[in-house]
């Protein structure tokens, strides 16, 4: 089953795994050692991240290396950016309103 990027980032453990892998490629064992959850739970999280295309897991000898695929996070970034722009516009409008209100209050004093 193909999952989407929003399913990947919905879980705090998966977000933390993404953060870890943003800095470097790590083995599955190294990723698992960074968490206080069971190894099967980490394997499940890694599987979901892989299904979403956020990471790849490649075998190198006896090790399985996890590597982030940042381009596949772009849909989430674009969605968040859209709302960031919306809220910036709303906050700018609110700031303008407060400035006008303060000016009006000073004139009435």
TrEMBL record:
Pfam family, one: HTH_5
GO molecular function, one term: DNA-binding transcription factor activity
SUPFAM superfamilies linked to this entry: Winged helix' DNA-binding domain
PROSITE patterns in UniProt: HTH_ARSR_2
SMART domains xrefs: HTH_ARSR
Residues in coiled coil: none
Residues annotated as domain HTH arsR-type: 1-88
Protein name: ArsR family transcriptional regulator
Originating species: Aquimarina atlantica
């Amino acid at each position: 089953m193909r999952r989407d990027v929003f399913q990947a980032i919905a879980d705090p453990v998966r977000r933390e795994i993404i953060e870890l892998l943003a800095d470097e490629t790590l083995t599955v064992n190294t990723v698992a050692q960074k968490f206080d959850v069971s190894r099967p739970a980490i394997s499940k999280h890694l599987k979901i991240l892989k299904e979403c295309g956020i990471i790849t897991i490649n075998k190198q000898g006896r090790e399985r290396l996890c590597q982030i695929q940042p381009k596949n996070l772009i849909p989430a970034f674009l969605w968040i950016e859209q709302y960031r722009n919306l809220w910036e516009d709303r906050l700018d409008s609110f700031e303008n309103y407060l400035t006008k209100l303060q000016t009006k209050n000073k004139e009435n004093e």
